[in-house]
Design brief:
With 184 residues, the chain is of the alpha+beta class. The chain has one helix and nine strands; from the N terminus they run αβββββββββ. Strands 1-2-3-4-5-6-7-8-9 form a nine-stranded antiparallel β-sheet, with helices on one face.
Length: 184
């Protein structure tokens, strides 16, 4: 066998080189095919990520938000985002930040709306606390609203009622109906 290799080593080397090139080309074809399959899956069903930190900063809207979530699913066209078990921080260019913690939510890039649901706990940079089950945040208008029961606590008072409208531009909060206020 050793004598055969010594005599025919150029042909054996060329054969090995051709085998390596063929393996590389076949592997590249399969990898390219796998990437195409991955693109098809992502474009149809979207992609899911776990334990994420996501920042949306759009200077045109004048609002930045930061999302930390246990899981996030992006639609295939990345126009919609669904997230669960989250902490959402909303930071307007001017005014106080708002942190919201809840069960799940959705974001639409087209409308600029963030809808969150389930056992929502919120706090502001001004020291206020909010409890509710549903909120709709409009990036363009810089508003937060809901029509379900809410509880708002400040340094010297607490307010309970149904419905809420919070204007981030004017830093103005309204509880819309069935209002009960406690002053401490």
């Amino acid at each position: 066998m050793g004598r055969f290799l010594l005599k025919h080593w150029p042909m054996v080397g060329l054969g090995l080189l051709l085998a390596v090139v063929a393996a590389y080309l076949i592997g590249a074809k399969w990898v390219g095919r796998g990437a195409a399959l991955l693109d098809d899956v992502v474009s149809r069903e979207g992609i899911q990520l776990n334990e994420i930190h996501y920042t949306q900063d759009d200077p045109e809207r004048g609002l930045r938000w930061i999302l930390d979530a246990e899981s996030v699913r992006f639609s295939g066209d990345q126009r919609f985002v669904h997230f669960s078990r989250f902490l959402l921080t909303v930071e307007p260019e001017e005014g106080a930040w708002v942190k919201l913690k809840g069960d799940e939510g959705d974001y639409s890039r087209d409308t600029g709306e963030i809808e969150i649901r389930g056992a929502i706990e919120g706090e502001t940079g001004d020291g206020y606390r909010l409890l509710t089950e549903h909120l709709l945040i409009d990036e363009g208008k810089k508003t937060v609203r809901t029509d379900v029961p809410v509880q708002l606590e400040g340094p010297f008072f607490s307010v309970e009622g149904k419905g809420l409208f919070f204007d981030l531009n004017q830093e103005r909060v309204q509880i819309l109906s069935e209002v009960t206020t406690h002053i401490r």
